[in-house]
Amino acid sequence: MKDITYIAAFPKSGITYLNFMLFHILFDCPQNIRLIDSDYIFDLHESLARVPPASATPRYVKVHFPFNPRIPLRERAARAVYLLRDPIDVMMSVWDFKHLTGEDGLLDASPAAREAMFQRFSQHWLATGGLIYPWAGSWNANVASWLDQTELPVLVVRYEHLKARPFDELRRILNFLGRAAGDDRLAAAVEAGRPENMRRLEAEEIDGGTSGVFYRPSLAKGYAQGYRFVGRMHGGSSEKVLSPAARQYAEQVFGPLTRRAAARAG
User: In which region does residue 43 sit, left (phi positive, over 0), alpha (psi from -120 to 50) or beta (all else)?
Assistant: First the structure.
């Protein structure tokens, strides 16, 4: 039975923002947002075992893997929503997340050492087409895998459009999913997904030391230094952090695929 919809994206592309809003549209009350990844939009990487058996009830699964023959639940998959974000904005979001998790000694590095590390990090990102998490493939490979496969219908959603006009993009997603929702429900979902509301929930989890949507005890050191899961929601990073030569190189590396994917998104 084809009961699974993948909600897919390369890591740090804004999938939590999207799923936060979808949660408030797709599931009736009572709801517990702190269980979103385990009981509602199942995180394939952490909650695969919690996905119920195939049934007539639609199921939604969050996934960062590229599409390939070994992707879990493939035999049950009916469709996919793929969230596309500017690759340099993704790079910056990954960089922020590395601070939160304390990777590579970043939390103990001096400003000068941190800047040198960033230069190496950004150069590696460009040289590899965005290869940071081997299990996700490079940014280029991940995006291409979902665009090029022919097994599933895929709706490409641009993160930038979702931020700029969330109501319209959510309506477009619902049409693709074959789900109906009134304007009031859509508006409530957009309100719930506002960054300040997501940050408020994250702050409550941090203050209470409560594992939930965002907080993990293992991230306490990063939180103590002011880093957050709901980050700066970067935009226009290419102009802000890359030199003219690096921007030209980034265009060569990412431009053709970005434009092809964006054309799918409309």
Answer: beta
Burial degree of 49 (CB within 10 A; 0-12, 13-18, 19+): exposed
Tens digits of residue pLDDT in 207-221: 888 787 887 888 888
Nearest to 100 by CA among 15, 218, 194: 218
| Closest CA relative to residue 80, chosen from 157, 188, 13 | 157
Q: How far apart are CA 176 and CA 5, in angstroms?
A: 11
217's enclosing H/E stretch is: none
Quick count: other Cβ atoms within 10 Å of Cβ 227? 19
Backbone angles phi, psi at 59, to 5 degrees: -120, 145
The C-alpha atoms of residue 105 and residue 212 are separated, in whole angstroms, by: 25
User: For 63-111, how does the pLDDT look when each residue is reduced to its tens digit (9 = 90+)?
Assistant: 999 999 999 999 999 999 999 999 999 999 999 989 888 888 888 889 9
Give the whole-angstrom CA distance, residue 236 versus residue 254: 15
- Domains of the chain (ranges; CATH) run 4-265 (3.40.50.300)
Alpha-carbon dihedral of residues 50, 177, 54, 40, nearest 10 degrees? 20
Which tokens is 3 given? Answer: 């009961």
